[in-house]
Amino acid sequence: MTCRARVDNLKSMRCLNFAVAATVLVAAPSEAQRVPGRDLLHYPIGSLAEAPSLALDSGDGFQTPAGVRLPSGAKIRGSAVALNTGTDRGVSAQLLSIAVALPQEITVAFSAAHAAIDGIGHTVDDPQPIGRDVPYSTVVLSVTGARQSLDHVTSGVALRYRSGEVDGVRRSTVGLDAGVIADRIWGHDARIGLSSFLWGPGSGDGQDASFSGAFDVRAVGADSTRQARVGYSYTFADGASDGHYVFISGRFARWIARAGVARTSAFGANDTAVRLALGLRYARYTVGLSREESAGGFDPTYQVVLSGLFR
Q: Quick one: pLDDT at residue 207?
């Protein structure tokens, strides 16, 4: 297999390697029960350059179940996310979420996420594609609940159903995730977050699950609408990969800005990427755009977030 893209030979070979790795999910007997498409979810869907366990701007709870909790007085929140990597990799993802407030400050949310790669073609003896593209995609459906369980502590759980397809083969599984966010740590304006992703019964042999921890603290600023924060995040997966993320964020009135450097390691290979985001909170709405530089000379990844609160 290969990828149809208007890029140089180096990028084409990397795209070819990506496609070959995808087919291994079907061809290798030892991985016969793995659900295709897990690698498409390594992109930070639903995060505006945030640490996964502190991803709150979109309010969809995809990265951390604790992120769906509605603020006091809000009844409903709707969120929409779109991610695109450009034509050289051809990955796109969409996420829709709706959260509803229940009695006792409980929030329940439903979300649907879809990620796919285009332009993977069948090959035989050379890189020239033959016939139709090979479908490679995954869908994640989540039912999430969250509430402020203690003073300054929000916890959440998510029941997830994931299905994936590659070259006409479709498999599915279920998982259970949890997340917790604590703020005002030791009397200071600091936050700590912990979360899992695709854990529980759906993790299969364990290689699908990932776990994240992060903290940030207000460095300067008078209050939550005029401040600058610094933070650090660590993510690891059972599939021999991990990642470090150092970031700064700031808010001035309606505007939110964030920047960070991510360092990831998987099976001995290391990559470094810069993440940038800009957001605007106006009345009941949050609009944001993020950009992540990609290793290996690929096009950057862009993500757009729109979220609205209704009382």
A: 64
